[in-house]
Each structure stands twice: as structure tokens, then as C-alpha cells.
């Protein structure tokens, strides 16, 4: 049994976010972190490993420095890392990205008892699309928004969290589960794990590794293979100085409520 | 000299920093206020391999190096001086002498439990009448068949009331002076051993500090650490290592105070200006950071020497002397930058100032460090 | 054979009409209203696509907001949402009827289903949109108001370079959404494939009545139990669990200003929080005075929060309180003292007695919500 976890290195949007004059993100000036929801997926994989003794393999697509993130995951207990990196893969939207990661996972080999875990969504794009689209490309069933996962033989029972409650879903392996932060509390790296993580294996998959896979075609990967295009990106107008509303009567509060409603705040 | 850190060391720093921010910082003011030993934090640190960083894996350690250990203590001390000294005393003063002077049997018996944090360690050298003058030991150990009988008491023992394993010093031959001191491994449950009164302290108030009492305490012969009469040398070597831990603690406390001061002065507005915009604030912070940076170089240098099994008495003494005095100075200045708020317990800098003071005192006062340094210079 | 790149073969705007337990989700009506606007700009029909068991009754409700047609797929296998069944039915329907636009609510169901459909159809999907346009003039007007882009860059949005040629975006759906935690907005198009798909953030689009006679269609479809690989054991509707301060979107905090009548002050804060769907916070002064539990404390020694809205009632705004809340997206302050520092970081300030202002504010918010 193996658990694959898909992870992404993302800019830390919780700190100050620098924007270039042309409206694009100044990624170079930002700290990178492991996408928070992905950490919950990693923790879910490692808890299943603690319980069942399986092998955990982390997959990431990104530039070569993303290897550093894989090492951190290994210091937490992940057994192996796969770095998918190639210039041909750059500029991929969610469709093209899932196509490539699905090809990489398929190349590694999915066996009947395997599980793929992903974070619900990444904080840079917030799309929540790559997990389901990988599942689609691999023809695997999916359960998204997992708030609890239990494994009994080849059946997983997942508590799928909804806006107004939850549903309990049973699914057979192999399958894709996307994880939310309520699922668990990610562990820290282990000091002993840190001194071992550079001895573990990181497999690099390039365009050459994957180019013969049926999912990989110049028309389905990278910028050219992405169905969506960015028309423009921009920053919202800066928050100005605060507005003092004159008076303390009903007309004042009506005005405030009107502003909040117009801004979709209420 | 190369101070660039390895990838592993950078990861250790990152990991401990995250742990300290999320798990240690939220408790720091509470354990200070309540004078409560943070056992829950020790359990978490144990699971993460922080209680035996530089010991080999075969003894249950994390297989790291002395510098990684010093960085761990430094990061913990940035947010909580108490938590830092728990790790430092346990590692440097109990695990280290057993690892460095113990027989294979002793190492296999004690280190796996200590390094994995299942058991906590402490060190008993100081006595009411043998502080800076450690050679004046009044605790005695008399061989009686297959065991020693210990009588006497120790004081100011860090981790004293919570530890399970103690490295304790006693006179086996009073006529021999320093050379009559021997070291023993004492377990909490040994007959005739008990833990005495808890000290109420100015700083590091969450750490346990208490007396150890030996009343015809029976210690098996095989628990003699090193040879009979080698105790003083073991104690001094152990303190060389311990001083690196305390220096790292002082370093962290000072750095933590600077972090707080930078944050506060860039938010606090007086005379319609952020107080960080005043040149006095900038110059203060520049001086504070420069001092702590110099301290960091001294601490890391001593750690690297120890790792390389080179003599490090003078380096450790210089690191501790400088870092401790810098920490006291920097925390005091941080309180000043905070003004009235700094004097309240709403903000952590007053705690840091109290915590910093002890680093000038324990494991050899600053005066003792100067004696060690001067002696190493051959100045008589 | 279905080919998503034969742009001309696709026509009409579709909205996936999400129902749960036989009840239409409110977002559906918002999407129908928005879909109506897009269909009018394109000069095509607006169609709902509704999956469920015995849902003809609720299908008719869609006419009220402007749907011309509803494709109804009725089956016990569709009573409760499953990814497999819903994806198969929707993909088959899209392949049969070829809509040019397909919208979903960005709910836990829409965001599970839409990516799966898009991947199978080989088309583009834009997640969690907050603004949609077809008409270029309207879109550029929107950019003038909502962005800091210079005129010439706004003008250049009329086309994009595609495979070495200029492509006019006049008939493309322009899907605008926040990215990077809201620090950046992006407009996305799907120029080479159809349908252009989007999930739309609930609560953002306006529900507008636009009644018309709606035609219900019941196309034949193929769905077998073995198509569904997951088993839904139960669906549980839970009362909204008490959220803690850190995760809350709305926080109403009280300060020393409630001292005149602590009980009433807290009750007002609670009522306002309930109205907003949020929780009650407090300054250190209130916690120290024992008026409220320490888990409510916001600030240096309390919690650091960044809700969508932070309402500070009778809080002066000492630095240690601000440290815990100044990153909130929108800060509203009510304080008797016009020089209170809280007003320095507030987006909206009202100088007045909270015991007078808060009841008025609750009424105003109720009225504003009802008008939506």
C-alpha cells in the first residue's frame, strides 16, 4: 500500500504581498511556504502510515528549489519525493497541471490499495480544481472536503464537510481524497528526521520522463495546453483613510448598512 | 572560519522556530506567572527529538551536532527562557557526561530513555557551601561492598524536582581535595534520596529549581561515573559544554527581546510618529543587534569546537560571558524602548529581562568565566 | 463526436441549479439572475440544468428569475449529490446540447463537480468568480472602477495574442476573481474551448426577479447504479457550530464602553454578531473585569484575528488591542470619544453611544439584507 500526496510550494500570502507595476505578483520578494491544506493531506498520510505502516510518496510540480520543500516533508516522515519540473510545464493552468501530475503519478504506478491525498486548495490560486481533475484524469473516484478519514481494508469512510453539515461517504481504493484544515493538526519536522531527510530519495521527473505518457501532449500541457488565459490582472484600489460617518442616528446606520451591502460585506 | 549553516542546520532552526512560536510562546507568560513547570511542552519536545539532539541514534539521540543543539536552545529562548534551560540542563549536564564518561553499560542503560525524553535529567554539583568554589564539596560517598552510601545535600538544582536521572558529585576521599571528588548516576527512586524545597526565583520561574537530599542514599557501585577521583574533571568538562547551552539561552533571550522591540516600536506612535522613526530607537536597536550578533558568533564557534572534540573551555567561557552580559543589557534596553508598557506583564520584555539575569550567574558566574579565560591566557 | 474546440457549435448560457434535499439552494437564483444578464448580452437563451429526484416542482421557480428553459434530469440515483453520477449526467448533457457557458455555484458541491466536468469535457474552468462580463464596454467600465489599471491597459483588454494572432474577446466570458488571498484580482478567459465554465462565489451576484414562462425539458439520459463508485451513507444537517475567534468571518468586540450596563452591552453585541453570522470578541479590559471569558479576548495577550468585518464597540483602541485586529478586512468602530485611537485604523467610524447606535445598526442591517 502507498499513499501519494500532492503538494505545492506557494508564496506566503498572509504576510505583505508585493505587486509589480504591471499588476503581476512579485514572487521573488515573497517567502515561500508549503501550501497549508497540503500539510493536512501530508499529516493524514503520515497518520495512516503510523497506523498501517505504508509508504508515503510526495509529488510536487514546480521549479527545482521545490526540492527543499520535499526534504522538509521527508523530515516529517514522508518516505520519498517526486519533483516534476520542466520548462515545458510552465504556465500550466489547472487543467494542464492536473494532466501532468496525473501522468507522473501514473508513471510511478497506482496499485489497487493506494490512496492519493491532496489539499483542498492552494492559497495562491484558491481554485480547488487540481485534486478533482487529477482524479478525473486517472479515472479514480474522489471525495473532496474531507474532515475525517477512516480506513477499513480497502474501504475509506470519509466525512465530507458541507456548508450546512456533512455527508458520510464510503469509497474503495484506489481513490483521491482532498483534505481541509479541520481534518488534523499537521506535525512538525522531527529533529532526527531532519538529519536523515537528505539521505532519502527524490526522483525528478522531467518532460523527457513523461513525454511518452498518453496524457502528455504539447497541446495539453504548459501555457499552450491551458484552456484558460489570463486577460488581465490588477490590484484593487488601495484602502483609503477611514471614513467618519457624521451623526449617530438611524440615517447614519442606514448609510453604513448600505455601504456594507454594496460591497457584499453583508 | 565559516559560519554558513548547512541545509540540515537551517531546517533545525526553522522547525524549532515554528515549534517555539506555536507551542512554547503561548505558554511563556502563564508558566512564568504561575511558576509552573511546562511538562506538556517537554513531552512534545521529546516526541520531536529535541531532548537528545547531538547524541548518536544508537543511544536514542537524533544524530545531530552540538551546533544544532545550541540553535535549538537559542530558538526556544527567543520566546521562553524557561523552556530553553530545561533542554539545556537535561542535554548538557546529564546526557553529555553519561555519554562522554559512561561505560557502554551505563550508556545503554540511561541514554535511550534520556535522549528520547522519556526520562528527564539533572546535574547536582552546587552545595550551600560549594557554589563558585565547587571543590568545597561536603557531600560524601563511602564504598560499602557493592554500593556507595551518599550523605549530604545539593542546592539550586535545575530540573531538580522533575528529573528522573541525576549526575551527582560527592567526596570519596576528602584528603585528596579536588581529586577526591567522584561522579555518580543517581536515580530518583534510590533509597535515601529525596528532593527538597523549591526555590522561588526572579526569572525562569517555570523551571524547577530545588535541593537534593542524600540520607544514607544507596548508589550501586556500577553507577560510579568515570573513575573514583575523576569527578572534578568530569564536572569541569561538563560545565564547558553546559556553558554553550546557557550562552545559547542568553543569546536567544536577547534576540527575542530585539524581535519584540522592533515589532513594538514600529507600531507605537508618539508625537504623531512611529517611535521606530526616532533616531534614538534606531541607534538603540542597531547596538542591540550588533551585540547579539557578536554573541552568536562566539556561541556558534564554541559549539563547533566542542563538536570537533577540541578543547573549548575558553571559547565556552567567552561565549557565555559575552552572551549573558549582552542579554542583560539588551533586555534592559528593550524594556526602556517599551516605556511604561514594557514594565507591565502585558508585554514579554520584562520577563525576558528577569530571565536574562540568571545567565550571568548559573553554570559559572561571569566572574568565573573571566577566571577561566584569564587562566587560559596563562595570566597568573 | 464531441469536440470542445468547435466554438461555433456551442450556444446558450447554462446554470447548474444546485438543490439539496429537494430544496433549491439560494445561490442558484443568484446565478440564474447573473446568467440572464449574460444571455441577454449574447442574445441567446438562459437554461437551467437541474439534477435530482422529483424536482419538477422546484424547476418552475427558476422562471421567476429569468430562466427560459430547464433541463431536468430526474432519477432516484440523483437524489443526493455524488460526483460520479452528477458528472456523467452533466457531461452527457453538455455533449448533447452544447452550451457555450456553464455556471456553478462555488459551493462544496459546485467546486467538487465543476472541475471534474471541465477535465472530462476538455475545457477551461475559472474558480470562485466574483464578477462576470460578456459586454466589453461593461467590462472595461468595471475595470475603471475596481482597478488601478491605467486607461491604455484597460483599452488593451479588448483582445489577447493567441497562437500568434490577435483574438477579440468580445464574445468571450470574462471571469474575474480574487487571487493571492485577495491581494490581486485576475480576469480569466477561455477563448479556445467551450463551454466556458465558472464557479461563482455564493452571495456575490444579485438576485433579480425577471419572471417568464419557463419550459421544462426532460431529455433521455443514461445512468446506472454501477456508474457511481462512492456510497453516501448519510447526510447530516448540523447546526452551525460555534466558531472560535480565529476562524470567524465576523467579529463584534466590546470594550470598556459597555461598563454602564454590562449585561445589555453584551446582549447587543451578541445580537449584532448573530445578525452578521459572527461571534463576540472583547478587549482586555472586559476580560480582566470578569465580564466575559478570556477565550473572547482579542489583542496582544489575546488572539490575533483577521475577519472580514471587525466591529469595535466602545473600544478605545490601545496599541495592544490593535495588534490583534488591525489586519481585519473591514473595521467598523463605534465610540463616544471622537479622539479614540480606534478611529485611526477604522474603515468606518461612528461617534456615538453604543447603546444608542447598535440597536439602530442592527435594524439598518436587517433592512439592507432584506432589500438584497
Helix content of chain C: 25-40%
Number of strands of chain C: 20
Proportion in helices of chain B: 40-55%
Largest interface (CB < 8 Å): A-C, 81 and 95 residues
Number of DSSP helical runs of chain C: 11
Beta-strand content of chain B: 15-25%
Radius of gyration of chain C: 24 Å
Low-confidence stretches of chain B: none
- DSSP strand content of chain C: 25-35%
**For the residues shown, what is the average pLDDT of chain B?**
96
Order of strands, main sheet of chain C, comes to 7-13-6-1-4-5-14
What general form of chain B does the structure show?
globular
Overall pLDDT confidence of chain C: 92
Uncertain runs of chain C: none
Question: What structural category characterises the helix and strand content of chain C?
Answer: alpha/beta
Sheet of most strands of chain C: 7 strands, parallel
- H/E series of chain B: HHHHHEEEEEEEEHEEHHHHH
Radius of gyration of chain B: 21 Å
Keywords for this structure?
heterotrimer; A: 266 residues; alpha/beta; nine-stranded mixed sheet; 7 helices; B: alpha+beta; four-stranded mixed sheet; four-stranded antiparallel sheet; 52% helix
Short overview:
The complex is a heterotrimer of chains A (266), B (380) and C (372). Chain B has helices spanning 7-34, 39-47, 66-79, 81-101, 104-115, 231-265, 279-307, 313-338, 340-343, 349-358, 366-376; strands at 121-124, 140-144, 147-158, 165-171, 181-187, 193-198, 209-220, 224-225, 269-270, 273-274.
Protein described:
In chain A, 28% of the residues lie in helices and 28% in strands. Chain A has 266 residues and is α/β, with parallel strands linked by helices. Chain B has 380 residues and is α+β, with helices and mostly antiparallel strands. In chain B, the strands form three sheets. A four-stranded mixed β-sheet of chain B has the order 1-4-5-8. A four-stranded antiparallel β-sheet of chain B has the order 2-3-7-6, covered by helices on one side. Chain C has helices at residues 26-42, 56-60, 83-97, 110-121, 136-146, 151-155, 262-276, 284-288, 319-325, 342-345, 354-371; strands at 13-17, 19-20, 23-24, 46-52, 69-74, 101-105, 125-129, 131-133, 159-162, 165-168, 174-179, 184-189, 196-200, 215-217, 230-237, 250-254, 279-282, 309-313, 330-335, 348-351. In chain C, helix 7 links the parallel strand 16 and strand 17 (279-282). In chain C, helix 3 (83-97) crosses helix 4 (110-121) and helix 7 (262-276) runs parallel beside helix 11 (354-371). Chain C is globular. The model of chain C has no long low-confidence stretch (mean pLDDT 92). The chains are: A alpha/beta (266), B alpha+beta (380), C alpha/beta (372). Chains in contact: A-B, A-C, B-C. At the A-C interface, helix 3, helix 4, strand 7, strand 8 and strand 9 of A face helix 3, helix 4, strand 7, strand 11 and strand 12 of C. Strand 9 of chain A pairs antiparallel with strand 15 (230-237) of chain C, so a sheet runs across the interface.
Amino acid at each position: 500500500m502507498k499513499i501519494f500526496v500532492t503538494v505545492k510550494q506557494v508564496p506566503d500570502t498572509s504576510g505583505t504581498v508585493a505587486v509589480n507595476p504591471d499588476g503581476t505578483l512579485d514572487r521573488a520578494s515573497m517567502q515561500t511556504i508549503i501550501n497549508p491544506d497540503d500539510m493536512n493531506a501530508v499529516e493524514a498520510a503520515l497518520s495512516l502510515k503510523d497506523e498501517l505502516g505504508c509508504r508515503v510518496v510526495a509529488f510536487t510540480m514546480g521549479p527545482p528549489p521545490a526540492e527543499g520543500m520535499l526534504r522538509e516533508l521527508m523530515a516529517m516522515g514522508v518516505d520519498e519525493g517526486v519533483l516534476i519540473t520542466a520548462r515545458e510545464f510552465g504556465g500550466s493552468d489547472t487543467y494542464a497541471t492536473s494532466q501532468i501530475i496525473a501522468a507522473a503519478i501514473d508513471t510511478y504506478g497506482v496499485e489497487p490499495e493506494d490512496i492519493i491525498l491532496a489539499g483542498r486548495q492552494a492559497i495562491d490560486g484558491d481554485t480547488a480544481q487540481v485534486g478533482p481533475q487529477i482524479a478525473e484524469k486517472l479515472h479514480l473516484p474522489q471525495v473532496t472536503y474531507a474532515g475525517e478519514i477512516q480506513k477499513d481494508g480497502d474501504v475509506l469512510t470519509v466525512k465530507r464537510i458541507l456548508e450546512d453539515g456533512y455527508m458520510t461517504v464510503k469509497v474503495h481504493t484506489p481513490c483521491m481524497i482532498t483534505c481541509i484544515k479541520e481534518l488534523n493538526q499537521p506535525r512538525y519536522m522531527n529533529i532526527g528526521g531532519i538529519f536523515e531527510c537528505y539521505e532519502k530519495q527524490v526522483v525528478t521527473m522531467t518532460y523527457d520522463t513523461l513525454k511518452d505518457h498518453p496524457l502528455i501532449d504539447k497541446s495539453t500541457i504548459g501555457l499552450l495546453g491551458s484552456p484558460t488565459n489570463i486577460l488581465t490582472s490588477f490590484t484593487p484600489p488601495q484602502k483609503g483613510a477611514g471614513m467618519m460617518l457624521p451623526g449617530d442616528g438611524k440615517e447614519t446606520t442606514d448609510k453604513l448598512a448600505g455601504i456594507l451591502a454594496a460591497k457584499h460585506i453583508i | 572560519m565559516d559560519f554558513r549553516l548547512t541545509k540540515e542546520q537551517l531546517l533545525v532552526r526553522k522547525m524549532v522556530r515554528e515549534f517555539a512560536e506555536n507551542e512554547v510562546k503561548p505558554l511563556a507568560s502563564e508558566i512564568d506567572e504561575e511558576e509552573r513547570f511546562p511538562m506538556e511542552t517537554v513531552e512534545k519536545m521529546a516526541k520531536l527529538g529535541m531532548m537528545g539532539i547531538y547524541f548518536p541514534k544508537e543511544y536514542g539521540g537524533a544524530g545531530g551536532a552540538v551546533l544544532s543543539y545550541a540553535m535549538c536552545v537559542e530558538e526556544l529562548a527567543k520566546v521562553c527562557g524557561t523552556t530553553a534551560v530545561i533542554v539545556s540542563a537535561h542535554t548538557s549536564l546529564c546526557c553529555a557526561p553519561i555519554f562522554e564518561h559512561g561505560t557502554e553499560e551505563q550508556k545503554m542503560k540511561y541514554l535511550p530513555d534520556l535522549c528520547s525524553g522519556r526520562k528527564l535529567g539533572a546535574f547536582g554539583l552546587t552545595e550551600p557551601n560549594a557554589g563558585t568554589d565547587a571543590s568545597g564539596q561536603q557531600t560524601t560517598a563511602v564504598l560499602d561492598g557493592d554500593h556507595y552510601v551518599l550523605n549530604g545535600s545539593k542546592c539550586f538544582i535545575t530540573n531538580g524536582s522533575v528529573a528522573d536521572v541525576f549526575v551527582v558529585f560527592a567526596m570519596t576521599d576528602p584528603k585528596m581535595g579536588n581529586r577526591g571528588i567522584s561522579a555518580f548516576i543517581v536515580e530518583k527512586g534510590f533509597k535515601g534520596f529525596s528532593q527538597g524545597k523549591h526555590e522561588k526565583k526572579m526569572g525562569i520561574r517555570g523551571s524547577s529549581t530545588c535541593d537534593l537530599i542524600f540520607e544514607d542514599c544507596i548508589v550501586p557501585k556500577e553507577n560510579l561515573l568515570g573513575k573514583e577521583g575523576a569527578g572534578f574533571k568530569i564536572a569541569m568538562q561538563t560545565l564547558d559544554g553546559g556553558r554553550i547551552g546557557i550562552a545559547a539561552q542568553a543569546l536567544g533571550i536577547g534576540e527575542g527581546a530585539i524581535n519584540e522591540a522592533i515589532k513594538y516600536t514600529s507600531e507605537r506612535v508618539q508625537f504623531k510618529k512611529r517611535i521606530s522613526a526616532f533616531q534614538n530607537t534606531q541607534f538603540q536597536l542597531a547596538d542591540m543587534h550588533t551585540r547579539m550578533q557578536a554573541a552568536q558568533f562566539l556561541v556558534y564557534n564554541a559549539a563547533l569546537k566542542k563538536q570537533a572534540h577540541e578543547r573549548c573551555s575558553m571559547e565556552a567561557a567567552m561565549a557565555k560571558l559575552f552572551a549573558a552580559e549582552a542579554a542583560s543589557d539588551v533586555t534592559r534596553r528593550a524594556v526602556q524602548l517599551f516605556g511604561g508598557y514594557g514594565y507591565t506583564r502585558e508585554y514579554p520584555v520584562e520577563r525576558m529581562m528577569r530571565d536574562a539575569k540568571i545567565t550571568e550567574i548559573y553554570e559559572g558566574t561571569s566572574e568565573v568565566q573571566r577566571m577561566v579565560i584569564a587562566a587560559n591566557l596563562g595570566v597568573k | 463526436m464531441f469536440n470542445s474546440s468547435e466554438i461555433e457549435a456551442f450556444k446558450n448560457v447554462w446554470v447548474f441549479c444546485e438543490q439539496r434535499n429537494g430544496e433549491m439552494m439560494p445561490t442558484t437564483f443568484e446565478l440564474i439572475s447573473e446568467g440572464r444578464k449574460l444571455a441577454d448580452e449574447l442574445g441567446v437563451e438562459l437554461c437551467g440544468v437541474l439534477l435530482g429526484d422529483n424536482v419538477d416542482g422546484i424547476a418552475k421557480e427558476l422562471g421567476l428569475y429569468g430562466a427560459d428553459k430547464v433541463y431536468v434530469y430526474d432519477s432516484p440515483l440523483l437524489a443526493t449529490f455524488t460526483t460520479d453520477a452528477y458528472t456523467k449526467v452533466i457531461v452527457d448533457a453538455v455533449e448533447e446540447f452544447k452550451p457555450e457557458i456553464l455556471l456553478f455555484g462555488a459551493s462544496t458541491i459546485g467546486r467538487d463537480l465543476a472541475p471534474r466536468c471541465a477535465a472530462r469535457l476538455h475545457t477551461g474552468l475559472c474558480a470562485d468568480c466574483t464578477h462576470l462580463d460578456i459586454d466589453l464596454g461593461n467590462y472595461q467600465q468595471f475595470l475603471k472602477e475596481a482597478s488601478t489599471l491605467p486607461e491604455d491597459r484597460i483599452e488593451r483588454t479588448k483582445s489577447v495574442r493567441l497562437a500568434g494572432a490577435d483574438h477579440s474577446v468580445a464574445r468571450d466570458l470574462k471571469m474575474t476573481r480574487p487571487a493571492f488571498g485577495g491581494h490581486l484580482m485576475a480576469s480569466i478567459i477561455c477563448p479556445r474551448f467551450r463551454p466556458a465554465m465558472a464557479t461563482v462565489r455564493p452571495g456575490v451576484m444579485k438576485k433579480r426577479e425577471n419572471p417568464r414562462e419557463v419550459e421544462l425539458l426532460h431529455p433521455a439520459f443514461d445512468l446506472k447504479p454501477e456508474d457511481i463508485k462512492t456510497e453516501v451513507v448519510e447526510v447530516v444537517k448540523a447546526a452551525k457550530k460555534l466558531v472560535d475567534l480565529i476562524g470567524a468571518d465576523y467579529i463584534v468586540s466590546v470594550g470598556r464602553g459597555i461598563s454602564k450596563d454590562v449585561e445589555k452591552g453584551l446582549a447587543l453585541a451578541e445580537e449584532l454578531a448573530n445578525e452578521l453570522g459572527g461571534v463576540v470578541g472583547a478587549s482586555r479590559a472586559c476580560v480582566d473585569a470578569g465580564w466575559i471569558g478570556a477565550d473572547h479576548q482579542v489583542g496582544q495577550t489575546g488572539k490575533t484575528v483577521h475577519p472580514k468585518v471587525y466591529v469595535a464597540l466602545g473600544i478605545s483602541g490601545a496599541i495592544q488591542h490593535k495588534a490583534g485586529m488591525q489586519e481585519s478586512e473591514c473595521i467598523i468602530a463605534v465610540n463616544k470619544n471622537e479622539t479614540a485611537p480606534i478611529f485611526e485604523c477604522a474603515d468606518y467610524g461612528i461617534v456615538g453611544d453604543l447603546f444608542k447606535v447598535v440597536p439602530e445598526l442592527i435594524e439598518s442591517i436587517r433592512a439592507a439584507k432584506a432589500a438584497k
